[in-house]
Amino acid sequence: MYVSDHEEIKHTVIELDNQSCVSCLIPLSFVSVEPEATIFIDGVITPCPVSIHEKTASLLKKPDLSGYNYIVVSNDSSLPDNLPSGLPLILDFGSSDVRLISKYLAKCAGWNLSLSEFFNACIFNPAKVLNINADIRTGVKVNLIHWQNVDVVSKKLTTFTKLVELA
After folding, report:
1. pTM of full prediction above 0.70
2. Domain carrying residue 68
3. Is 47 or 38 the better-scoring residue by pLDDT?
4. Cα–Cα distance between 73 and 122 in angstroms, integer?
5. How many CB atoms sit inside 10 A of residue 79's CB?
């Protein structure tokens, strides 16, 4: 589970209340009995990718992206074979619709980004630019995403990676 731009946690239960707010993060090492209604998931959990385009489409003033390498990932965009370096990366799928984003992920698998780099580029860096919270933390409502078919050993996307919305 990637809960922020600098924190990855493993083997942890996310407890949500009825409003999809995180009520508790519980390491499995602290639990001797499985919590009620626990769903075990193989893969990675993150907040939903953040689209600068989607969030600012109706705004006259767009955010300053001069400190970032900003790449639009969509069917009609031509993507570079190699990503530019030097500046933090933002990958914008143009939407937060997980079905749409899943269609574009195979294009991104060839970039050889680590999962941490990829999640920073499509979740946490865009959230910083927009000055919104994207972290998974107690007391915050979150839209959780399950990244299926990732290579958890090498911590990379695969051409079969797809997204499923959890909450």
Report:
1. yes
2. 2-165
3. 47
4. 10
5. 15
Percentage with pLDDT > 70 across the chain: 95
Determine the Cα–Cα distance for residues 92 and 77; give it in Å rounded to an integer.
Answer: 11
Please give the single-letter amino acid code of residue 31: V
The token pair at 53 is 């385009």
Strand partners, 147: 44, 163
Question: DSSP label at 144?
Answer: E
- pLDDT tens track for 71-113: 999 766 677 777 888 899 999 999 999 999 998 898 888 888 9
- Token representation of residue 13: 């239960």
Q: How far apart, in whole angstroms, are the C-alpha atoms of residue 165 and residue 36?
A: 21
* CA–CA dist 163, 150 (Å, integer): 10
The domain total for the chain is: 1
Residue 10 to residues 24, 41, 138, 152, Cα–Cα distance (Å): 15, 12, 17, 11
Q: What tokens were used for 41?
A: 């998931």
